[in-house]
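Data card: per-record layout.
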Amino acid sequence: MNPFGEITILSLEQATVLPYLTYRLAMDGARVIRLEHPKFGDPNRMVGEPIDGEERMNQYFLPINAGKEAITLNLGEAKGRELLKRLILELDVDIFATNQLPSSYAKLGIAPETLREIKPELIWLGVSGFGPEHVEAAYDPILQARGGLMEMTGEVGGEPQVMGIPLPDMGTSEHAYGALMKALFTRERNGEGATLQLSMFASTVSWLTVPITLSSSFGVPVTRRGNTHQFFSPVSVYPTVDGFIYLAVGNDRQWAELVKLPEFQHLDKPEYEKNLGRNRDVENLNMAMADITSRLESADLIAKLKAIRLPVSKIQTIPELVADPLVKPMLLKSKDPKTGLEITLAPPPYSTSFLEERGRELSFPPRFGEHNAEVFGQLGFEQAELNDLQEQGII
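The structure for this 395-residue chain is written out next.
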């Protein structure tokens, strides 16, 4: 039995932070209906190359929107706001979510007090850049810059860099997921809904546990360190004959095992016996490590290091990652019934019964307004009425 099969989410979403959250919920088996403006829609629909030359179905939109339904509704019109209320009541919506600017809540009729007045048990979720009291917009790199992540990313002494993934976006999605789970649990216990406000900035800052404490409490400078670790050595990327590996020696026992290998024996020095000593001479130690590893092939070196249980890995490309025997069985698929195109999707962090029952396949990312007839039909609208609403710019 799928415990999320009776959960319905109506999400006024765009970009990444909220679509990734509802993608996670769709993978749990919840019904997710994404809500878009009938003219403008989600800007991410138009990013990247279009599939089959189709408008508003571009490649960048696809990865985090499978498993959902899509409707259009103009909340700038009174009739649109009335339809929103009907959707919440007549579809028995459990969660309403939005990542619109908080300054737009009132004029769109989506403020928590407005929607929870008509359905007190509703769980209302708002995700914004800096919280509901602040009107400024925020893209992920802006949050990385202000939130300290770029200060922590890049080469030693080099320019700040953005991270390879949008952690403020996707990290906030995960924090919102946890908040929703708590709200659903509480509602199951006492029947009460909830108003949840998540700040992407607060989410971003919360990841900086060690940097904030060491800097604020002990005056320890914490900044970019490239591929090394500020407190453990040797930890870095090392060249090989045919590529690169990442090796992380996390304690003195592991170091003692490493220097028993013939190739590394000459590094068995008293001053390197403890991590503190290795860390004090990290530049020379890393140069010596690189001199050794650069003479060895990646596969042979990795085999030797794994044999003594040292944490090590080849630095995989994305195609190599997808082919990894641990990853391949986790991946999801989605097939377009219109074109036959099948896409590969990133998996959830853990499997769900819903996905296993469906052969790890989700419905194809929805086209713009694809489910208008189906969803509004559940409110009793006939096609002629929907055509009229479309002509009026309501849907």
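Known properties of this structure: The two ends are 35 Å apart (CA to CA). The chain has a mean pLDDT of 96.

See the next section for split statistics.
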